[in-house]
Amino acid sequence: MRFSFLMLALLAAGCNTRPAQETAATPPPAPTTPDAPLRETRWVLRQLAGQPVSVPANTREAYLTLRADGTAEGNGSCNRFRGSFFSETESELKFSPLMSTRMSCPAIATENAFTTALGKANSYEISGDTLRVLDASGAAVARLEAVYLK
Predict the structure, then answer these.
(1) For the segment 53-86, what is each residue's pLDDT rounded down to a tens digit?
(2) Which InterPro entries does this one have (predicted)?
(3) What is the pTM of this model?
(4) Is residue 19 part of a domain?
Protein backbone atom coordinates (compact mmCIF):
# COMPACT_ATOMS: atom_id res chain seq x y z
CA MET A 1 0.00 0.00 0.00
CA ARG A 2 2.79 2.35 0.96
CA PHE A 3 4.63 1.56 -2.27
CA SER A 4 1.59 2.25 -4.49
CA PHE A 5 0.91 5.59 -2.77
CA LEU A 6 4.55 6.64 -3.36
CA MET A 7 4.37 5.54 -7.03
CA LEU A 8 1.13 7.51 -7.49
CA ALA A 9 2.74 10.65 -6.02
CA LEU A 10 5.78 10.30 -8.29
CA LEU A 11 3.62 9.77 -11.35
CA ALA A 12 1.54 12.85 -10.54
CA ALA A 13 4.69 14.95 -10.14
CA GLY A 14 6.03 13.63 -13.45
CA CYS A 15 2.90 14.79 -15.31
CA ASN A 16 3.85 18.43 -14.81
CA THR A 17 5.33 19.14 -18.25
CA ARG A 18 5.64 22.90 -17.87
CA PRO A 19 9.26 23.98 -17.31
CA ALA A 20 9.87 25.86 -14.07
CA GLN A 21 10.80 29.12 -15.91
CA GLU A 22 7.43 29.22 -17.74
CA THR A 23 4.98 30.72 -15.32
CA ALA A 24 1.87 32.82 -15.61
CA ALA A 25 4.04 35.91 -15.14
CA THR A 26 6.01 35.16 -18.33
CA PRO A 27 3.91 36.07 -21.37
CA PRO A 28 4.19 33.83 -24.43
CA PRO A 29 6.22 35.27 -27.31
CA ALA A 30 4.21 37.51 -29.61
CA PRO A 31 3.32 35.85 -32.91
CA THR A 32 5.08 37.41 -35.86
CA THR A 33 3.12 38.37 -38.95
CA PRO A 34 4.74 37.15 -42.13
CA ASP A 35 5.46 39.83 -44.70
CA ALA A 36 2.63 40.40 -47.15
CA PRO A 37 3.60 39.82 -50.78
CA LEU A 38 4.26 42.93 -52.87
CA ARG A 39 2.24 41.60 -55.80
CA GLU A 40 -1.43 40.62 -55.77
CA THR A 41 -2.09 42.41 -52.47
CA ARG A 42 -4.50 45.28 -52.01
CA TRP A 43 -2.42 48.04 -50.39
CA VAL A 44 -4.55 50.74 -48.76
CA LEU A 45 -2.99 54.19 -48.31
CA ARG A 46 -2.53 55.17 -44.64
CA GLN A 47 0.12 57.96 -44.73
CA LEU A 48 1.63 60.38 -47.21
CA ALA A 49 4.98 61.96 -46.33
CA GLY A 50 4.48 60.89 -42.71
CA GLN A 51 1.01 62.44 -42.39
CA PRO A 52 -2.10 60.29 -41.81
CA VAL A 53 -4.57 60.11 -44.66
CA SER A 54 -8.23 60.72 -43.89
CA VAL A 55 -11.06 59.64 -46.14
CA PRO A 56 -13.66 62.39 -46.69
CA ALA A 57 -17.33 61.42 -46.81
CA ASN A 58 -18.57 60.09 -50.16
CA THR A 59 -15.08 59.07 -51.30
CA ARG A 60 -13.21 55.78 -51.34
CA GLU A 61 -10.06 54.65 -49.58
CA ALA A 62 -7.06 55.15 -51.83
CA TYR A 63 -5.40 51.85 -52.69
CA LEU A 64 -2.79 50.28 -54.93
CA THR A 65 -2.59 46.76 -56.34
CA LEU A 66 0.54 45.53 -58.09
CA ARG A 67 -0.26 42.63 -60.40
CA ALA A 68 2.03 39.71 -61.25
CA ASP A 69 2.13 40.85 -64.90
CA GLY A 70 3.72 44.22 -63.95
CA THR A 71 0.49 46.23 -64.01
CA ALA A 72 -0.10 48.81 -61.29
CA GLU A 73 -3.71 49.76 -60.67
CA GLY A 74 -5.72 51.39 -57.98
CA ASN A 75 -7.92 54.23 -56.89
CA GLY A 76 -6.72 57.57 -55.60
CA SER A 77 -10.06 58.22 -53.77
CA CYS A 78 -11.78 59.88 -56.71
CA ASN A 79 -10.34 58.29 -59.82
CA ARG A 80 -9.06 54.90 -60.89
CA PHE A 81 -5.49 54.79 -62.19
CA ARG A 82 -3.41 52.30 -64.11
CA GLY A 83 0.14 51.94 -65.36
CA SER A 84 3.19 49.72 -65.05
CA PHE A 85 5.68 49.12 -62.29
CA PHE A 86 9.18 47.75 -62.26
CA SER A 87 10.80 45.73 -59.51
CA GLU A 88 13.86 44.05 -60.95
CA THR A 89 15.74 43.75 -57.66
CA GLU A 90 14.39 42.72 -54.26
CA SER A 91 13.74 46.26 -53.00
CA GLU A 92 13.38 48.25 -56.26
CA LEU A 93 10.00 49.81 -57.07
CA LYS A 94 9.47 52.29 -59.89
CA PHE A 95 6.33 53.28 -61.75
CA SER A 96 5.68 54.35 -65.33
CA PRO A 97 3.47 57.44 -65.65
CA LEU A 98 0.04 56.47 -64.32
CA MET A 99 -3.04 57.12 -66.45
CA SER A 100 -6.19 58.18 -64.64
CA THR A 101 -9.69 59.44 -65.08
CA ARG A 102 -9.92 63.11 -64.03
CA MET A 103 -13.08 63.59 -61.99
CA SER A 104 -12.98 66.05 -59.14
CA CYS A 105 -14.01 65.21 -55.58
CA PRO A 106 -13.31 66.32 -51.98
CA ALA A 107 -10.19 64.08 -51.82
CA ILE A 108 -8.53 65.32 -55.03
CA ALA A 109 -5.59 66.84 -53.11
CA THR A 110 -4.88 63.50 -51.43
CA GLU A 111 -5.22 61.70 -54.76
CA ASN A 112 -2.78 64.07 -56.45
CA ALA A 113 -0.30 63.68 -53.59
CA PHE A 114 -0.64 59.87 -53.77
CA THR A 115 0.06 59.65 -57.50
CA THR A 116 2.92 62.15 -57.11
CA ALA A 117 4.41 59.99 -54.33
CA LEU A 118 4.17 56.90 -56.54
CA GLY A 119 5.95 58.85 -59.29
CA LYS A 120 8.84 59.49 -56.85
CA ALA A 121 9.09 55.83 -55.83
CA ASN A 122 12.52 54.25 -56.06
CA SER A 123 12.34 51.36 -53.60
CA TYR A 124 10.16 49.75 -50.96
CA GLU A 125 10.21 47.96 -47.63
CA ILE A 126 7.63 45.48 -46.38
CA SER A 127 7.30 44.67 -42.70
CA GLY A 128 4.35 42.44 -41.87
CA ASP A 129 1.29 44.11 -43.37
CA THR A 130 3.00 47.47 -43.95
CA LEU A 131 4.45 48.66 -47.27
CA ARG A 132 6.68 51.73 -47.17
CA VAL A 133 7.33 53.37 -50.55
CA LEU A 134 10.67 55.17 -50.53
CA ASP A 135 12.10 57.89 -52.78
CA ALA A 136 15.68 57.97 -54.11
CA SER A 137 16.96 59.43 -50.82
CA GLY A 138 15.36 56.61 -48.80
CA ALA A 139 12.63 58.82 -47.32
CA ALA A 140 9.17 57.30 -47.00
CA VAL A 141 6.78 59.04 -49.39
CA ALA A 142 3.84 56.71 -48.62
CA ARG A 143 2.86 54.05 -46.11
CA LEU A 144 0.25 51.50 -47.12
CA GLU A 145 -1.37 48.60 -45.30
CA ALA A 146 -2.29 45.20 -46.72
CA VAL A 147 -6.03 44.62 -46.55
CA TYR A 148 -7.25 41.08 -47.01
CA LEU A 149 -10.67 40.39 -48.42
CA LYS A 150 -12.75 37.88 -46.49
Answers:
(1) 988 888 889 999 999 999 999 999 999 999 999 9
(2) DUF306_Meta_HslJ (IPR005184), HslJ-like_sf (IPR038670), Hsp_HslJ-like (IPR053147)
(3) 0.75
(4) no
